[in-house]
Amino acid sequence: MPAKGAMDKMIEAPPQEPRDLDSPAGVRIETVDRTFATRHRPVQALSGMSMRAAPGEIVAVVGPSGCGKTTLLELVCGLQAPDHGLVWSEPAALMPQRDLLLPWLGAVDNAALALRARGVSRDAARETVRPWMERFGLAGFERTRPAELSGGMRQRVSFLRTLLAGKPVLALDEPFAALDAITRQDMQGWLAHVLAEERRTVVLVTHDVEEAVVLADRVVVMSARPGRAVAELEITIARPRRRTDPGVVALRERALEALGLGG
User: Fold this and answer.
1) Are 38 and 218 in contact (CB under 8 A)?
2) Cα dihedral value 182, 222, 51, 157, nearest 10
3) Mean pLDDT throughout 17-27?
4) Of 161, 159, 167, nearest to 188 (Cα)?
5) In a domain? residue 145
6) For residue range 206-246, what is the model confidence (pLDDT) as tens digits?
7) CATH code for the domain of 250
8) Would residue 20 count as lying in a domain?
9) Total structural domains in the chain?
10) What separation in angstroms does the CA of 235 have from each of 93, 98, 186?
11) What angle do CA 39, 42, 46 make, to 5 degrees?
12) Please, which residues have CB within 8 angstroms of residue 68's CB and are 6 or more apart in sequence?
């Protein structure tokens, strides 16, 4: 078992089968433009943006701040419509960057909100959620309110709520950005476990290039605003992936170079 050094952890997830990238299912975005009207001037968030995610594939999207990554996720989830181009996705659930847990509810009831929104009774929703609480390392915290949970535990509750929405596509917007470095790496390993067991199509937006390379099957690199795909890196490195493995380091450097940050 490798040492659990903060900068040299392994993402403990079993190998996954190859994806069929020609399948019509999953997510497809083709030559999408999206412009917002502001008080002073129009702002073009996306220009000719194209990407895809096959069923069960984890695609990470990286790019500079303000390049339209969150807009991209909202398009996938149907919360926005493109000005031009095609957006097609199986039903998707969005996990926003902030956990947005309701402060007056305990963890189990916050996680159950997705079920309640689907018309499930409170008692039935709680019974459904309880076994998941143990799987997510939250056993014993069912009635604990968000203010009393650690940042990592709050994110687990938020992710569980997103998962229980029952959608085949998960759109994750910087899920660990607010966490400290050590907690973030722990959460990345935890997320790899969950996604290996609960296979979904995932579009993961992150500023952390290393996180993208460690977790994803492909990394899409976006340009500065207006955002478009400028590079796509396929990751064939077997899991678990060590952050210091030469292949991981090389892919990280390629992604940084595509972002104009290579040195």
Assistant:
1) no
2) 30
3) 54
4) 159
5) no
6) 989 999 999 999 999 999 999 999 999 999 988 878 888 89
7) 3.40.50.300
8) no
9) 1
10) 25, 28, 21
11) 135
12) 34, 45, 46, 49, 222, 225, 226, 227
